[in-house]
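Annotated sample (chain length 551).
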Amino acid sequence: MRRRFALALAAVSAIALSAPAVADTLIDNVDGMTIGKDGKVQRFTGLVFDDEGKVTQVLARGDKRPQVQYRLDGKGRIMVPGMIDAHAHVMNIGFGALTLDLSDTTSLADALAKIADFARTNEGRPWIIGRGWNQEKWGLGRFPTAAELDSVVSDRPVWLTRVDGHAAWANTAALRAAAVTAKTADPAGGRIIRDARGNPEGVFVDRAKDLVDKVVPPPRPQDRDLALAKAQDVLLAKGVTAVADMGTSLRDWATYRRAGDTGRLAVRIMAYGDSIDTLELVAGAEPTTWLYDDRLRMGGIKLYLDGALGSRGALLKAPYADDHATHGLPLLSPTQLRNLMSRAAMSGFQTAVHAIGDAANAEVLDAIDELAESYTGDRRWRIEHAQIVDPVDIARLGRHGTIASMQPLHQTSDRLMAEARLGPDRLAGAYPWRSVLSAGGRLAFGSDAPVEPADPWAGIAAAISRTDAKGEPFGGWFPQQTVTREQALAGFTADAAYAGFAEGRFGRLIPGERADFLFVDRDPLLAPPEEIRQTRVMEVWIGGRKVREAE
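Output written by the structure step:
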């Protein structure tokens, strides 16, 4: 572990320090594209940036080339802005890559075999920690049980988070460690899955996860540093140069600061605190300034209003089609939601509210309508996911500068589940990307990694086609909700930056903004969706420095 940690830190340090300081550099002979200030695609053939890593000129074919200290030949390659993931969980990306990953399992038997193998090869770990299981993908028709986990690991606790992060699966040893019994009550906003006699079966939904989370040994600082190094490697490999970190804890912030102080923070992080306490302890009375040459800022708060469709925690106006006994789980009351949004807004913090079900989205929109009367100006209220919106509420997404922060890959991963959970009559407002734009709303695209892969190219392909990696369903799922290629590119660049109050700093290749760009092997504005998914990132530049090159 120590050797791997040292190597990872050395690699990230090399990322930050690999290139010498630059002064007026021209990269010429490129097939470049960016989103211009008018929101349209702008093509160019040369890019000039200064010794601060900021763009000074964007040159078209035929423009006179300036005298510069450094001139590089782009060799006709395709240059695009660095991709921005508008919704991810940075530390979870790293921890997910370093712990047990069940996201590729296709059956319960497959998962149990992988769990058993991981336990055998990690005998020294006091707990088996992992994520990524999905009972819907397994075709199980129910949640897995503690007894099934016991059949492969019974000598120590096992704690495995569902793919959406809104449920977790424990074995009997974990239940024992957390002192959870039939007498343990369901907490507000959570549910313990039980058998007919009321005994816990091993799965905990939403706030009920806290019952076990509180006894799981926390990662050490060096574990966190390693996880951040791994997360940056994952993001940079796909060309993600900036990310909105949704739910930044105090420990996460300390990890980012350690990396920034030692020159190991390569990716730009727009942090959204996990609580009012975190905002006050980190930022005080107002958002922090931008740190480390625009690489880190805490400017908002992430709130959870409901859960997810997969665990039937998303809050719906009508009962679930496949479980008439529930509408979902509210995680905040209407009063609590407004109080938290108001407290953040009073100090100038942006609010980003997780809302998946149609009832949850309606509640957030109600709150925004009310609060916008008191908190005027450019607030950029954010709704994270906005997956299921009642068609009667879609028009309200065009008010008050509200931003729908959505993840295209959720649509392709969840469509069959959404059909089962909602039934055919409630799908008109499912993942309504084009309708949001038609209503005058703003879109910002992300991945929700590690729930989905941190892959903007797959996201762009899904956004323009509404089909998955297999090209299914033919013609796209509700294809009237696709967006144009230009809108998809903007969603992962300029509009994602705007959603985090980062416009003017990065997100476009225009004068005054940071020279964050990629060389890729194909044109996302011309290639078919199946080829866009195969995009290879050849080079990653952040602030005018090359930080990664493909082998």
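Annotation: The longest helix spans residues 221-237.
Annotation: The radius of gyration is 23 Å.
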